Amino acid sequence: MDFEPITRPLTDDEAKAEAERIIARSFQPEMPPVRHIPTSFRDDTPLPAYGDTPPVHQDDKRIVPAWAAGIAVASIGVGAGITGVGCGAWLVLQGLASVTLYGVLMVTLPFAGVAMVATAIGGAFSKARKSVSKTVYEGPVVQNTQINNTSNQRGMFSRTRNDVR
C-alpha cells in the first residue's frame, strides 16, 4: 500500500481505480481467518494419592476487605437469628390464640398431680418425725434490749449508728 499523502488532485482514471479498490475491499465476501487462541488450560493428568510436594503459593486477589466480609457474614447471621426469633414468637402467639380452658387443665394436670404427691409425702415425713421425739424446754426466759445511738456530725456529712443488742 502506498501511504504517501497525495498532494496533487487525482486524475479521472486514478480516482476511478481508487474507488473500485475501496468498493472491492469493503464488500469482500470472505473475511480474513480469525485465529483462535486458547484462554484456559486444563490438566487432566491424574493426581497422586500421596506425596511430599509442598503447596504452591497462590496470590491473594480478594477485592472485598476482610472487615467488610466479616460484617456481611455477621449481618446475615443476625438476620437469620431475628427471623428465627420472629418465627418462634409467631408460633407462641398462635398457640396462645387457641387456648381453651380444657387445654389449660390438660397441661397443668400433671404438675398438679406431682405437687399433690409431693405434699402428701412431705406431710407423712413431718408426722413421722414429730411422733418419734417430743422435746419440751422449760425454764425462765430473759430478754435484754439495749440501744446505743451515736451520731457524728461534721459539716455536710453525717453518720448515725444504731446498735440494737
Give a structural overview:
- With 165 residues, the protein is mainly α.
- 48% of the residues lie in helices and 10% in strands.
- The protein has three helices and two strands, in the order αααββ.
- The protein has a two-stranded antiparallel sheet with strand order 1-2.
- β1 and β2 form a beta hairpin.
- The radius of gyration is 50 Å and the shape is elongated.
- It starts with 11 loop residues before the first helix and ends with a strand.
How would the blueprint of this fold be written?
Elements (H helix, E strand, L loop, with lengths): L11 H15 L39 H32 L3 H32 L14 E8 L2 E8 L1
Antiparallel strand pairs: 1-2
List SSEs in N-to-C order.
Answer: HHHEE
**Most strands sheet:** 2 strands, antiparallel
Low-confidence stretches: none
Distance between the termini: 125 Å
Strand order of the largest sheet: 1-2
Q: How many helices?
A: 3
User: Which structural class should the secondary elements be placed in?
Assistant: mainly alpha
How many strands in all? Answer: 2
- On the 0-100 scale, what is the average pLDDT? 80
Strand content: 5-15%
Helical percent range? 40-55%
Rg, rounded, reads 50 Å
Shape: elongated
